[in-house]
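Subject: mismatched residue count in predicted assembly?

I count 910 residues in my input, but I want to confirm that the predicted structure covers every chain. Input:
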Amino acid sequence: MKFSGIWKKKKDHFQNIQLNESLDTLPKIPLHPELNQNIEVLKSAYKDCSDVVFREFSIGSSINAVLLYIDGLSNTEEVDQHVLKPLIQMKNHEHGAIFEKTKKEISVSDIKDIYSINDIFKQISIGNSIILIEKETKGISIGLPKWEKRSIMEPDAESVIRGPREGFIETLRVNTSLLRRKIRHPLLRMKQMDIGRYTETQVIVAYIEGIANSTLVDEVTSRLKRIKIDGILESGYIEEMIVDHPFSPFSQVLTTERPDVASACLLEGRVVILIDGTPITLIAPCTFASLMQAPEDYYNQFYISTLIRWLRYIFFFIALLAPSAYVAILTFHQEMLPTTLLLTIAQSREQIPFPALIEAFIMEITFEALREAGVRLPKQVGAAVSIVGALVIGQAATAAGLVSSPMVMVVAITGVASFLMPRYATGISIRILRFPIMIFSGMLGLLGVMIGITAIVAHMCTLKSFGVPYFNSTAPLKIQNLKDVLIRAPWWAMDTRPEFSSKDTSNLRRQSSNLKPGPSKGGGES
Amino acid sequence: MLLLCLTSIFLTGCWDRTEVNDLALILAAGIDKGENKNIELSAQIYIPGGSQGGQQSGMSNGSSSGQSFVRSAEGETIADAMARLQEELTREVFWGQNEVLIIGEKLAKAGISDEIDFWMRHSEPRIRADVFVSKGRSKTVLGAKPELERDAAKQLRKIVKTHIGVKVTVKDLSQMLSGESAPAVLPWVEKLPPSLMDKKKEIPIINGAAIFKEGKMVGRLDDKETRGILWPRNEIKSGMITISIDDENGYISLNLLRSHTELIPSIKNGQWSMHIKTNADLEVVQNTTILNLFNPKVIKKSEQKVADEIEQRERLAFSEVQEKLNSDIFDFANEFQRKYPQIWKQKKDEWNEIFPQVAVSFETKVKIKRNGLATGKHQRGVEQ
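Triage response: the counts match. Full output below for your records.
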């Protein structure tokens, strides 16, 4: 990180600057009193940047000044109306206090003083307009940005039946406002930093002071500060650089597009990382149980939420093990099946030329391919692909005698099961791990399946996400904390926060303990 | 190093992998006496193919019953015969789904302990398979084609599940044979008499039981006697008892709801005796008499009558088994051994002589729990 290009001062003449390094490491270049010098420096910096506009004008037709903005990022109408027009029409021509006078004339709430070229780079890139005035070593940054943004929509990947319909969008400020609208307390902190040498992406670490563990916040911040990269285009860039176990197939950071999920996580003492340019936010720490929780669990009645949560646990295993168990039983443990079932399977397998393992692989790979094709293709073609795929898998393959119908059944169940995972990332790790277990089962039967499970469980037990064990509250076991793991306890019973939240003893409880509704409590007279 | 470990796991692991396509699934097995002390092993083997795969298979196979065939081989032992059988088959013999074992009458009379050893010792056959003794050769039973079920094996297995006769698995049999004087009881398979069928077909049914002693078949009980031995063996699960009350015309039929039997042994002054205590609950399902079943007196009378009936059945069985066949299939030996371990140790060897002398007494308590929905009174009342 060396700074190679330098300002060469030759008789008050600036040479070209070389901007091949991060703007943070660029030495501070104070503004020169000579306006033309500044303009020259900036023009050389923004050489060949057709979208940067330099509008030179005179304040009150006597003092030279320049307005500087990036076309498309600034709200030019407003700038014209509230900045340019009053300045040009200004009457007072005294030089000395011109800076303060100018500021008074500008009827914009968000204005800042800037003192260096570096500040200009920063301010201009987020859509602010800059005014530099002759004989002044300060400039004014006017916060009137405007750019095209998507409207707030329901996120497709995390839709709910009961619950808010809004989702994060690509614009950071909108996202923070969505959070702030849900959590109004000033203790909701939002630390900002810029990551990415060229992209200068704004990243915000949001947490609630007093609920989030302060060491966790420090850890997240320090890990983010470590990142030195050309650019951050999506949260995935950051995720891969801050996780504890970079080679694990399991996701160690939660992701969400939903402000309500992010808020709930904040209230549990987690840290939310918002990144400009993507609707996907990161949440840390992440535990296995939290990967199995869907937002709707907390909005629906707790009986059904508990049942569905169990359904997910069961189908987690089905998604992971169904093909391998089928292969293992069919090639090693035929005595385990009920006679009638085995006879049926034997009948349907009679014409199949491949061993069960190969058959399973063909089907699973075909299924993965179809799924990928369905996701990637444009919507109109995608439907066609799924129809063809269903035909290929469901009928043609069996009719052609390539795969047996029980295998189709197994693959279909596996597919459905992996769609049942509330977080897309969980489904991915299952899809990856399915294949090694299948190989194990093909080699060693159920023993191989057990070896696979043991290896996976052992790996998951070693995982930690920001110092929190992956199986937190299950292993190490804390009965108290199972209320949100094995069951979804009713809200009036969930009175303590998760274990990893702040240990501040004055603030341990989520809610007062006597909240269970009943005829003698609440209500008018009683 | 890791690679070495992984490869060694995989290289050693594959040896017992077999596809279903390479298995000859044995559904039922029969053993008979062959020539020159040989054992003849017959196996009913499933034919998985037949139709052209895919969609049609489901439909076309529904009606066809010829989905299995019987093949037999002789050998000095069952294992030997099995090896011979394997020679005749293209696929590996698989015992894991064998649920029925039928022993031919001749072999049963010659002794079965040695053959059961194979079923217990070999790891593949299920020890929960049901065992039967067939009249005549077991091979003919295996070849039978029942109408309702897939094959003879399924037919026998289903019948035995109803608990109308005795149900004995390989494990039970082995336990019985290892007891003192090796008494055993096995269901007896016969052909359904042609008079009860519309078409002439050979359909195996269970008709009574075969009684074993010292591992050899010594006699058989008919159906009624078999029902009698179920009571003290505590195996009766369902049953219909029909009684008639003294001076009345008509009968009352009762359905057994539940029953429990207790064996209480006692030795007094050198006299061995066994008290058989039975508690049974029944419900009335048909009443062709003019008696009013809501009358407690009638109920009391009926209960007494049912108790008599049950005792009578038991007595019948005992007279056959205890006196004639002298085979301790009720496991009295075990009861005595538990209660009088000291005396048992001394008298163990004389058990064969003692058993026929054991005085058996009955105590039967019957409770009629339900009278049925119809009162059955008004019609008859009008007639009177």
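The CA atoms of residues 231 and 261 of chain B lie 7 Å apart. Marking this ticket as 'not a bug'.
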